[in-house]
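Changelog note: in this version the structure field was regenerated for every chain. One regenerated record is shown below for reference.
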Amino acid sequence: MTHPHVDPAVLEIIKALPKVDLHLHLDGCILPSTLLELAREQQQPLPADEPQTLLPYMQVEGQCDNLKQYLERFDLVLPMLQTGEALERTAYEAVQQSAADNGMYIEVRFAPQLHTARGLTAAAAIGHVIEGLQRGERQYGVRAQVIAICMRHHNEALNREVIEAAAQYLGRGLAAVDLAGDEAGFPPELFRSVFALAAQHGLPATIHAGEAGGPANIREAIHGLGAVRIGHGVRLREDPALLAEVRSLQVPLEMCPVSNIQTRAVTDWSDYPIRDYLEQGLFVTVNTDNPTVSGTTMTREYSELAARFGFRPAEIATLILNSIEAAWLDAPAKDALRQRLLSSCASQGIQLHGHAHDE
């Protein structure tokens, strides 16, 4: 995928702004160098033995045919992430990578049941990821929480186990639960009882919907599964009545522009609805999804918006404010992030006008 040209002055401002990433997959941000070290330690084979020659196996070049093809990039990574040490290290490095991109808060999601092949329980996997995130937090000052994912291709018993495990950590490093995987193959209504259990435990939910499936999945995610945020939501525009409802409910959309192009959630950049959604008053946030797989960072995501849609620094700062508002944090924590952003804006002469999601 070609990187568009961004005005160098705008790029400097984007780099300097403190950022928030609410939709970030743990297994999608592992570094090639880390994967090589883990493979050596665990005596597992890989198709290449140098970071630069391994990267093409981990990263998507240009567009995939569909989401399923994109998800195949994870097959290489998962076998190495079956120990507590590997999970902790990868989580720690996710915080490190965010810090390098001037991040101030991240929510890192992963599917505990995909990491149990060598004896870890779902609860132990969550514990190790939280341990790594909190170590990163202490080291780099980037606040980090985990979101536990239920997988669409898993049976109800496995997914209920994730919910029960997540409940043990709610408020102790875990923010919420999610549903991910092959959206086209497994409609959300199959998971009503799993997310009813989440609601009983007081676990908030974000659901991947409207990416590889249509707007009916977004409606079901909100009404059937109790989602209070939507992962992606790109196809919401196909149902104007639902779009109006999502606007009135102010359900945050976790949009991931670079990844949405790669998975063909839209045909190309000219068709990407982010500007349209903002103009219609939708609650939009911008995120990376899978930094390694997509070859992206928050700086790149915002740079694409600046170059392709003419987003100005004030509009990018407003998107970051949206992410703060949508974050699973208490009011004082949100206030602290907001103050950091506003002082950064002030120091760079960015004028923020009225903001739709101010409290």
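Spot check on this record: Residues 291 and 297 are 6 Å apart (CA to CA). The mean pLDDT is 95.
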